[in-house]
Amino acid sequence: MKFTTILSITSLLGLSQSAAIHMSRNPSSSLSTRQDPAWSFSVYQSSERCTGARDTYSGDGTQECTQGIRNGSFGSYTTGEISDKCSVYIYNNDNCDDGGIIDILTSADPDGCLQPQLEVTGVASFRAQCG
Question: Which residues form the signal peptide (predicted)?
Answer without folding.
Answer: 1-20
